């Protein structure tokens, strides 16, 4: 029978956070190194805390990126909505086609952005209204993400607190052991022949 554990050291890679296919292993490893440099884990318990903190911090960054992407994806329909509200819907097929091209080109062509900015400026508005429309249209999803981010932040703070508590409890145990060991009344006197040395 092959022994179940071949190594006497626990493999912490089993604690490593799973990455999405769009995420960088190098970036995650860099985060772990920076956290390790800051926290300086001293034993396996603290390395487990470190793995949890790295996973939690990474998840928070992921959720924040997701939040931004959700807003960015909503810009296309937000441009259309804003222009329809400000200028009114196009009346002819040619106007509809021209408006659709302008909205599409807003993402890639500076002249299209300038044209839309000019049209909005006529109503004392700027591109901020497009951003507001994009955010507003995704409010439910953004609120859900904000709750998830808050939960990760709370988890992160608990993990930091757990390290502090663990280190404090360890420090108290060490202090108590040292005091007990150095307490003169607790020392066993050596026999006379050992004292003479």
List SSEs in N-to-C order. Answer: HHHHHHH
| Rounded mean pLDDT score | 88
What profile does the largest beta sheet have? none
Beta strand count:
0
Q: Could you give a short description of this structure?
A:
By secondary structure, the chain is mainly alpha-helical. Helices cover 73% and strands 0% of the residues.
Question: Your description of this structure?
Answer:
Helix 2 (44-87) crosses helix 5 (128-137). The chain is mostly helical and 197 residues long. Helix content is 73%, strand content 0%.
Write the SSE topology.
Blueprint: H1 25-39, H2 44-87, H3 93-105, H4 110-121, H5 128-137, H6 139-182, H7 192-196
Give structural attributes.
mainly alpha, about 200 residues, rod-shaped
């Amino acid at each position: 029978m092959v022994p179940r554990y071949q190594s006497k050291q626990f493999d912490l890679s089993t604690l490593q956070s799973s990455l999405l296919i769009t995420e960088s292993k190098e970036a995650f490893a860099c985060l772990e190194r920076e956290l390790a440099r800051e926290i300086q884990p001293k034993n396996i318990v603290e390395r487990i805390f470190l793995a949890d903190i790295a996973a939690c911090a990474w998840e928070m960054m992921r959720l924040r990126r997701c939040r931004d992407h959700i807003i960015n994806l909503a810009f296309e329909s937000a441009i259309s909505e804003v222009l329809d509200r400000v200028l009114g819907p196009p009346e002819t097929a040619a106007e509809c086609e021209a408006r659709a091209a302008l909205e599409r080109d807003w993402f890639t062509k500076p002249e299209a952005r300038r044209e839309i900015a000019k049209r909005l400026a006529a109503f004392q508005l700027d591109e901020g209204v497009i951003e507001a429309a994009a955010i507003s249209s995704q409010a439910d999803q953004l609120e859900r993400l904000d709750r998830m981010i808050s939960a990760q932040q709370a988890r992160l703070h608990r993990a930091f607190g757990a390290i502090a508590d663990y280190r404090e409890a360890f420090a108290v145990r060490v202090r108590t052991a040292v005091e007990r060991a150095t307490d003169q009344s607790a020392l066993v006197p050596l026999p006379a022949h050992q004292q003479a040395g």
